[in-house]
């Protein structure tokens, strides 16, 4: 039995994360970057209010760190950071990609909480009073690099997502949080629906064609069955 949908960050180790990165290239799993509505995304408590696009980048730049996209920081002396991401259509999130700058850095957050389909977003006062969709203990990178790590989610809770709110906190230094990358892997629900719809139409068309052929081949003067 595959229990990966029930995994939490406490159950994960580096080998699991590495394995999930390899599986993310399957044909049904793609980067959800093209489905992000950037005009509907924002961050709360950012040191630079309009800096969120620095980390919401295409998948091929996930390990580029500060050399390709930069980073975002929470305000000084406050390690809490809220990010609201809106999608252009319903998506199924299978994993979240997080780049924290190595994990051992004093400004690398070690806690992530996620909420899905909170259309109006969340405030910091909601963080402790609203049930989460999933929580993660962010892993430390022993290499000290800026590579992103992938965190699988509970698929049942992330199967039809229009928005996701992410709360980062609990840095080693307790002063500010820094992120280098934020991304999502999964699939578009619209594309999946269209594929299933196409299969249904095809089946109906096949039945109609078979009936038409039977009508055409029926003898005009044949005896009727009583």
From TrEMBL:
InterPro entries: Galactose-bd-like_sf, PITH1-like, PITH_dom, PITH_dom_sf. One of its GO terms (cellular component) is nucleus. Transmembrane segments: none annotated. It comes from the Eukaryota. Residues 21-204 form the PITH domain. Belongs to the PITHD1 family. This is PITH domain-containing protein.
